[in-house]
Amino acid sequence: MTVAGDGNTVSAYMVGANTGALTSAAAVATGTYPAGSFLDPTNAFVFVANNWGNVSVYSISQSTGALTQVAGSPFGGSTLQANSIAFVIE
Fold this sequence. Notes:
By secondary structure, the protein is mainly beta. It has no helices and 8 strands. It has one domain. Helix content is about 0%, strand content about 50%. The strands form 2 sheets. Strands 4, 5, 6, 7 and 8 form a 5-stranded antiparallel β-sheet that branches. It has a 3-stranded antiparallel β-sheet with strand order 1-2-3, with no helix packed on it. The chain starts with a strand and ends in a 14-residue tail after the last strand.
């Protein structure tokens, strides 16, 4: 589970299999003003939509939940504030 938060960060949490309890796994810097996050269907990557028209991408450690920024991220870019973001997975 990931949460885009205040302070230009995204936080990752591990969900306990038996209890559903959340354990903090990581908090990493994003682009400016993260608006939301999306996990890919394989749970290998998290995409963070930033309000200035770009997307930060992180790989997810399957054992620890740690996030590692993908080379070249954030992708895209604009001086216009994004009002909506669409993710397309092919």
